[in-house]
Amino acid sequence: xxxxxxxxxxxxxxxxVIVFALTVLFxxxxxxxxxxxxxxxAKVASQGAYMDPAQVDKLRQxxxxxxxxxxxxxxxxxxxxxxxxxxxxxxxxxSMYPTPVMELIWNALPWxxxxxxxxxxxxxxxxxxxxxxxxxxxxxxxxxxxxxxAICLYPIPYYILALVLSILFxxxxxxxxxxxxxxxxxxxxxxxSSIVWNSFLPAMSIVIVVFGWWVxxxxxxxxxxxxxxxxxxxRLKGLSDGRILTRYILPNxxxxxxTFLALQIGLMFNGSLITEILFDYPGLGLLIYTxxxxxxxxxxxxxxxxxxxAVATATMxxxxxxxxxxxxxxxx
Amino acid sequence: xxxIQTHRPKRTLMAVGLAxxxxxxxxxxxxxPAWAQExxxxxxxRAETLIVDMLNARVGNPTNMNMYQQGVTTNHGYHQMAGAxxxxxxxxxxxxxxxxxxxxxxxxxxxxxxTVPLRQGLTWSDGEAFTADDxxxxxxxxxxxxxxxxSAAYAAQIASMTKVDDHTVEITTTxxxxxxxIVLGSVIYGNPFHVVPQHVWEGQDPATFPNFPPVxxxxxxxxxxxxxxxxxxxxxxxxxxxxxxxQIVGEPKPQYVLFRSYGTEERRVLAMxxxxxxxxxxxxxxxxxxxxxxxxxxxxxxxxxxxANLDDPCERGMHFNTSKAxxxxxxxxxxxxLAINAEQASIATFSGMMRASPLAMPPTTxxxxxxxxxxxxxxxEFALEDGYKPFDPDYxxxxxxxxxxxxxxxxxxxxxxxxxxxxxxxxxHDPAQATKLLLDVGFTNDGGVWKKPDGTPFTINILAPAxxxxxxxxxxxxxxxxxxxxxxxxxxQQMQAGAFxxxxxxxxxxxxSYWGMSCGIVPDPFVRMEGWHKDYVRENGTPASSNQGRYVxxxxxxxxxxxxxxxxxxxxxxxxxxDILKELVEGLPAIEMFGTSKFVPVNETYWTNYPSADxxxxxxxxxxxxxxxxxAKLEPAAAQ
Lengths: 332, 640
Prior knowledge:
The complex is a heterodimer.
Chain A: H1 2-31, H2 36-46, H3 53-66, H4 73-87, H5 101-136, H6 141-153, H7 158-172, H8 189-225, H9 229-236, H10 241-267, H11 273-278, H12 284-294, H13 297-325, H14 327-330
Chain B: E1 2-5, H1 10-23, E2 49-53, H2 78-82, E3 87-90, E4 95-98, E5 106-107, E6 113-117, H3 132-143, H4 149-155, E7 158-165, E8 168-173, H5 180-183, H6 198-201, E9 220-225, E10 231-236, H7 244-248, E11 256-260, H8 265-273, H9 285-294, E12 298-299, E13 315-320, H10 330-338, H11 342-350, H12 365-372, H13 376-381, E14 391-392, H14 395-405, H15 415-422, E15 426-427, H16 431-441, E16 444-446, E17 449-451, E18 460-465, H17 470-486, E19 490-495, H18 497-506, E20 511-514, H19 526-529, H20 554-564, H21 573-587, E21 590-595, E22 602-603, E23 607-608, H22 627-631, E24 635-636
Parallel strand pairs in B: 2-11, 18-19, 18-20
Antiparallel strand pairs in B: 1-19, 3-4, 5-6, 6-8, 7-8, 9-10, 10-11, 12-22, 13-20, 13-21, 14-15, 16-17, 23-24
Helix pairs in contact in B: 1-9, 8-9, 10-16, 11-17, 14-15, 20-21
C-alpha cells in the first residue's frame, strides 16, 4: 500500500511538472524581445533582396497569418494546447518554414543521442572505475597518476580543449575531419563507420572533460564510505577487500552516481550546445540555438518540451526504481 | 535575449589564441597539394572542385529548395550557381545586366507597361526549353497562391503578365514603375522573383512543393547533398552552352562546385589554411592575418593594406530614433558626431582598414566617383546654423600618417591617393563645438556630468549586433568609448539577430549601430534611399518596413517623390541623388561613418583569376546571385 501511494504520488508530480513546464514554455518566448516575423523580414532585408516598403508590409501580414501569430495570446495558447494534446504536434518551424518541428527534432535526435549517450556512458564507466580504485587505494601509484590526470583535465575550459583537439587531430595530424561529412547508403557499414569516424573527436572531447568529474566525485564517496561503520564491520568480519569493495562500498557509492547519470541522460535532449557548435555537429543543441536566435517559438517549444519531458521521465523512473536499489526506501 | 556588455568582443581574443596554437603548427606541411590523385571527402577530384563557404552555415531543411517558401534557404548553391534572375548586377560597373531577359525592359511613356524580350536558346537542366510560358506560369502561380508570403507583395506591384510570343512577355504594373528591372531583378544579393519551370511545377501546390531535386536554368545542376545540410554539391551541366552563363561568359572551368559549412570561424580558418576550402565569406581581420601567415596562397582583396574589399553596398554608422528626445533635435545629433574622433574609431574597429563616409551613401569605388569625390567641395563649404564648418578634408591624410608611423606598410604618400583609399574626409573631432551645440539645445554640464534639458543625466545606450555583423559590433564599442571620453557615459547593449532587428523595426532603441537605408551600389540611389520618405514612419511599437529611425523631413520626402518618377538612367538621377544626400547631411538622422570592409579571402592553390583590387571584374560577393559569373571566370591553378 505504501509502495502504491509512493508510485501514485510520483506520477501526479510528473504530470504537474510537465503541464507547468509546457505553459511556461509557451508564454516565456512571447514575452521576450524577439518577434519571429520581424526576424524573418530582417533575414530577407539583410540579404538585400529589394522590396519596396509597401510590399514588406504585405509580406509582414502574410507571415503573421502563416505563422499563426494573429489572435490574442490566450487564443494562441488554446490552439497550442489543442495541438499538443490531440496530435503531439508543435507545428511548423517558423525559421525553417514549413518544415514540421517534429521532423527537425527527429532528424537531430539520433545524432545527439548517439554522441551523448556513448560519450556519457564511456565517461561514467571509466570515471567510476578509476574513482572507485583511487578512493579504495589512495596511496598507490596508479591511483595517484589517474587522479592527477583527472584533476588536470577537469578544470580545462571545454572550448579551449575542443579547439586544441581540432587543431591537433584535424589540422596538424589530419586524422579526423574538420567538419561532419557523412557518407554511405542507409543502414550500410560505410554509413555506420562514417558516423563513428565523424563523431569520434567530439565524443572524445566530452569524455575527457566529464571523466574528471566522475573520478573526483566517486573517489570522495569511496574514501568516506570505507570509513563507515558497516565497512569497518565487514573488515572486522574478515571479508576480503574485493568482497567489501563490490558488495559494501560500490552499491552505496553508485546510488548518487546513478541518479546523476539518469539526469545526464535526460539532459541529453538539450543536446550539447557547445560541442555541436564547435564541431558543427547536427544535433539538438544547434536546433535550440537556432530557435533562440530566430525567435522560432514552435521550434523552441518543441525542443525544450522534449527535454523537459525527458528529464521529468528520467527522474520519475529513477524515483520508481529507487525502492529496488535502496531497501531504506522500500521499508520506510 | 539581450546582454549588456562593456568589454571588447571575445572574437579578437579567440583569434589571438588560434594564432598562437596554429603558430606552432607551421611545420605541419599541410599546404602542399597533391594534384593528380587528391579527392574531396564527397568523392570529387579536388582539382576539379571549387569549394565555397556557405553563408548561413548548416541548412536545417536541406531537401526543400522551394525558393518561394518563407524560411527556405537557397544560398547553398542554388541561388548562386543554379538559378537565374531576369536581371542581375555587374558590381564592377555598378549597373544591372539582362540575365534571363535578353535586354533591359522597354517601357511605355508612363512606365506602366513594359516589353520584356527573353534570352533565346536557353534550356532547363532536364533539357526542356525555357520560354515565355515559364514566366507567365510563374506570374500566375504567385498571383493565385496567397499562401506564399511573396504573393501579396508581388501582386501589389505587378498587375499582369501576358505572352507576346515564345520569347517576349508584356508586363503591366499597378503604378508607374520607372525601375522595373529592380523590382524583378537583382541590385544587391538577389531578388525574390524566380522564374520556375512550368513543366515541373504545374500541378503541384507551390505552398508545399519541395522543389527537390531542383531543375536548374544556369550552368550547374544539383548533384548531391549531405542529409544534415552541411554540404551541397553542384555539377557543371553537359549542355552548359544552353545556360545564361554559357551565353554570357562561356564555359565555366570547375566541374563541381561544393558549398559547405565548417561551422565556427576558427574551423573555417583551419579549413582554408589546410586548402580544404577555396573561398570564405566574412571573417575578422585577425583571422585573415592568421591565414596569410599560415598559407602564402591565401590573399585578401588587396594584397597589402587594407586587405579588405571596401565596396560593400551598405555602410555602417550610428543611427538614431529621431522620434525620441533628445535625439529629435539635429543639433544633438551633430554634437554627438563632433564628439567622435573618427581616426580613433577606425583604428579601434578594424585597425584603420576602413574607408570613411560622411554621406548616407556607401563609399564604394563607383559611388566615390559619382557622389563622394564630386561633393567634397560642397562638404568643405557646408556650415551648420551657427556658421560652423564641420567637415575635415584631411582625415585620410592624418590617418595615413598615423598608420605609417605605427609601422603599417604600403600606405600611400599622396594625399589624393589617401583620400581615395580612406575616404574624402569626415567630421572634425571638436569637443568644444560639440559642447556648444549641446548647451544651445538646453543640456547642462554640472561638474563634468551632462544633463538633458529635462534635468536627467545624459547617458547613451547603443544597440549593437551580438556575434554577427562584426564591424557594426566593434564600431559600437569604439563610439561608446569616444562619447564616454567626451563626458557622456555610453554603453553597448548587444542583441542576437532576431531581437536586434525587432528592436530596430519597432523603434525600441534610441541609438543603434545599424546600417538601415545607408546602402547603394549603383548611381541611382532609389533602392534603400527611398526608405527615408516620411510615408514610412510608424509609431514606436509598430513595426516599420523602412525609415526605422522615424525621421520626418518634408524637403527630403519631396525630393524622394521626384526620384520615384524618373527611371534609373535619367540624367537627373545624380543631381537629384546629390540633393538628397545634402539634405541628409543637414538633418543628420544617422551619423554615417565607414563603408563596410569585407574580409573575404580566397585560396589560390587550386583556382586562380579571382576578382581582386587589381583584377576588378566583379566584387567579391560569393553569396550573391551573380557569383555564377565569377565562378565561370576562374582558372585551374594546375593549368598554370
